[in-house]
Amino acid sequence: MAEPTQTAELSSVDDFFRTEIRTGRIERAEVFAKARHPAYKLWIDFGEFGVKRSSAQITARYSPEELVGRTVVAVTNFPPRQIADFMSEVLVLGVPVEGTGEVILLAPDAEAPIGARIA
């Protein structure tokens, strides 16, 4: 059996615990016409942490209408990032599907409180 290949530099458990990953519910989604690559602007409710904005390249798999009301998982403590005329405040997590351009959004497999921290 071949040895597995390490794909990235190792991180410590402390690195993981410094990263805030939380559940949020998409309140609004619209086409991001000024983005370099096809994307949506998302407004995501994180409960007591407020509504945060994100730019997400998920247009190959989802329509804006499908996204509203969906629970997602996002990193909430990265610095904001300016993308064209939009400030993206959180990084929505997903799995890229090789060769398709699609990204499958990560989400809890059962109802989870909005704003809950992923452990």
Automatic annotation (TrEMBL):
Residues 15-119 form the TRNA-binding domain. GO terms for molecular function: tRNA binding. Keywords: RNA-binding, tRNA-binding. This is tRNA-binding protein. It holds the Pfam family tRNA_bind. PANTHER family: TRNA-AMINOACYLATION COFACTOR ARC1 FAMILY MEMBER, TRNA-BINDING DOMAIN-CONTAINING PROTEIN. Transmembrane segments: none annotated.
